Amino acid sequence: MDTKIITEYYKLCLFSIVTSIVTYGFALTNYSLSVDSETPINSEFAMSLGRWGTNLVRYRIFEGHLPYFTLLLGLLLFSLTAVELAKLFNFKGTMGYVFCGLFLTFPQMSYQLIFTMQADVITLGFLLAVLSVTIFMKNSDVVFSKTSIFYFILSSLLLMFVIALYQALILVPVIVFIILFLQNSYNENFNFKTEFRRGIFFSALLLVSVILYYLSAKILCPVPESGLLSSYLSGETDNQFLNACSVWFKNLVGNFYYGNKLFIIAFLISLFLFVKFGIEKKFFAIRFVSLFLLLILPFGFSFFITNGYHPPRIYLTAGLVFAFVIVHFISSIKYEQHAVFFCAIICTVNLYFITNLFYSNYKIFNHDKAEANKMNNLMQAKYPEFDEKVNYVYFYGYLPYEHHQKFRINKSEIFGGSLFNWDKGDNYRIINFFKFNDIAYYKLIDNKETYLKIKDSISSMPIWPTKESVKLINNVMVVKLGNEKGMPLWVE
Known about the structure:
Elements lengths: L2 H21 L1 H5 L22 H10 L7 H20 L5 H12 L4 H4 L5 H20 L7 H20 L5 H14 L7 H29 L6 H6 L7 H13 L10 H18 L3 H13 L21 H13 L5 H47 L9 E5 L30 H10 L6 E2 L3 H7 L15 E4 L2 E5 L12
């Protein structure tokens, strides 16, 4: 390989790593526990969700997750993903740097990276998905040669593992392939039949990968859990399609979640490109459909969700489309220098959004820790005989949403989550929160008889932070967080 190409590659790697570390600098240096990351990592972690790849990485290899290290590793993998994408899309020189900057700073990925227990898993899956397409494209012209069959098998195995890490990552290779298809339409030797045949071959790759994943999950994950998926499909609506279109449009104009604002730039550029395709006429249908798919697929999961809950973390490929559309447009205009300056402003604004999100979560986390310490101190002061190794602890209800309102950013979803409010007071989460932060090691009620002894004595108690909201009842320490009963115990 040319020395100059190698040098440029490593320079782009260094730029991407520095960019990602600066972008997530606050999160790296100011740790805050997020919802779900309080869950202990055990031998069955993620297996019930069919994510045996996540289990392999999170439990078998790393034996849990570490503050700072897990996010840092995730950022390094994410940086390599950006570089590999720039290389695959043939963005050379300045355009490579612009693409990596826009891709790495787009705030959507922060909604994944906040989950410490999967910050490196998601980015590893993203990288492997990109590499699988790279490998596939190397020998996709000759379908039935020994070399192409070898690369086909290798790509399908990689994609199988990608799906086993996180099922939503299946969209990554699809989006990447459509981008390559759109780019190829600008080649002088573009042949639709050849590209269509490659598309059929790629579809076969996806199908084989999904089948391999299904078989592997059947073998390794014998007891699948339908709860998470079915919860997204559990709602009923008379206007499912219209509701999904509304969510899609809000995403396009940057009004669906905090940090999504600048996606409107990619949307407006896309409108301009649609008009440009019409004026140029050459391969109009191909380019129009390709770009339209790029705008709809990142948000496609929302068309299947019926319960009204559309977490930003499911839009994994939004940042990829955002960065590509802008760089694709810049590459076609004469004012490249001015456009680069404009992109630097975009990256800076995105950095502001991301920092603000993690700062909000940081404040909620510290507030939760302070509340937890107050509760534990009150237990010890009121009942010196209380022994956390012997007595059960039960948290009734949950702190109202307004309790943390002053720390929250509007439409920030998981970044506005408090362990004393999420899932309406899940005792398993709350007790794990105390343990994770080394505040106390309470015993979760593990039998119905114990719960029945206390359930009728709670209604008359005042709610936190009143002193009487903490009470020892039949040797069970009860903390009443709110008047409304929260998530039931598993023994109820």
